[in-house]
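User: Sequence recovery, please. Input:
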């Protein structure tokens, strides 16, 4: 007669391709029940956006199929996003599991477009996603979402995010649009506004908070890196050497601040001919891949050039909503899955580091007790 141990042994052979660990030791098997040859359990994936979810499910089914003594097999599949940052060290934002800063070395590379459509792509997998427009001088997210008349309410001294397409959205643009005035502030005030948007906002149980940073290496990127624990930084560039060279400076800044680099994304990578589907590399080829190789950071995707992205942004109609089957939307979807996978990898490393630290403390405490 088959037993629990035999089942767990079979399931232990299933390895998460990203985390390089078996699903049993990762705690991904929940509520396992075995009764007279009838097996039932829940497979809890590390994120609904994982690019290997289908592969893991198939491997589990194949492993269980090898146990001939089973009469019936019932598997429920769910997902619970891992915490990619130390929530214990951040009492102000303990409802946000992952904070992803989207940065670029220079303007004009489509960073806000990438931030918005990645947020939408993650949300469409079932994840809970927030989008913080941290470009105080030039907020663009309200326009790109068609939210120029939206506003944020304050309840119990907390800002309430606006809602759009399943996203929780915060932007200085909601205030600037109402006043019709340019933001003219010095660095300390700008940093204070960002801190308020982060800590004094009622973010409701987010799996991912995408922070659209202004270009460059100024006050706001520094404030984000130094104020709260974040999961990491996503760098956006274009194929041109000038954009790639400046992106390198942004990577260098965050590395000096000991902030993990989630990876690099190449926007406006190529043009896909609608008639022949050939790729045309109008602005050059391979800029982001060269950065990836130089800094040994993941290359997460390339977004093709598409006039619909630009016009949709101006009209408040993101391409992930208006044309979800387009090559650009598919590229955003693929990139979002890669971003989620890297967040899970960083979360697993964080858990291992914390476990090692706690083990070291326990050993130290034991040593002190023995000395006594």
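Assistant: Recovered sequence (372 residues):
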């Amino acid at each position: 007669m088959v037993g629990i141990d035999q089942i767990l042994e079979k399931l232990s052979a299933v390895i998460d391709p990203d985390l390089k660990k078996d699903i049993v030791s990762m705690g991904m098997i929940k509520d396992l029940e075995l009764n007279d040859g009838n097996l039932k359990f829940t497979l809890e994936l590390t994120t609904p956006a994982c690019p290997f979810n289908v592969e893991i499910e198939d491997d589990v089914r194949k492993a269980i199929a090898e146990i001939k003594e089973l009469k019936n097999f019932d598997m429920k599949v769910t997902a619970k996003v891992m915490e990619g940052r130390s929530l214990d060290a951040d009492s102000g934002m303990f409802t946000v599991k992952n904070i992803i800063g989207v940065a670029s070395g220079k303007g004009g590379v489509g960073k806000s477009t990438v931030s918005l459509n990645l947020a939408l792509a993650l949300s469409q997998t079932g994840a809970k996603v927030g989008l913080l427009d941290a470009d105080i001088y030039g907020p663009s997210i309200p326009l790109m979402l068609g939210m120029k008349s939206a506003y944020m309410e304050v309840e119990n001294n907390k800002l309430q995010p606006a809602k759009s397409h399943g996203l929780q959205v915060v932007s200085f643009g909601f205030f600037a649009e109402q006043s019709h005035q340019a933001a003219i502030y010095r660095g300390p005030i700008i940093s204070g506004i960002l801190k308020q948007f982060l800590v004094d906002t009622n973010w409701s149980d987010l799996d991912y908070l995408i922070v659209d940073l202004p270009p460059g290496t100024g006050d706001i990127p520094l404030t984000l890196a130094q104020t709260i624990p974040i999961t990491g930084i996503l760098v956006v560039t274009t194929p041109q050497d000038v954009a790639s060279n400046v992106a390198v400076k942004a990577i260098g800044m965050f590395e000096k601040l000991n902030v993990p680099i989630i990876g690099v994304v190449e926007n406006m990578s190529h043009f896909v001919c609608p008639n022949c589907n050939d790729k045309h590399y109008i602005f050059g080829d391979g800029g982001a891949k060269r950065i990836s190789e130089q800094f040994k950071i993941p290359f997460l995707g390339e977004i093709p050039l598409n006039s619909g992205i630009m016009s949709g942004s101006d009209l408040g109609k993101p391409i992930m909503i208006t044309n979800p089957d387009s090559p650009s939307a598919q590229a955003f979807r693929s990139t979002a899955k890669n971003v989620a996978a890297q967040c899970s990898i960083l979360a697993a490393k964080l858990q291992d580091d914390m476990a090692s630290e706690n083990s070291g403390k326990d050993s130290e405490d034991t040593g002190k007790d023995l000395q006594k």
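The chain has two domains: 4-79, 87-336.
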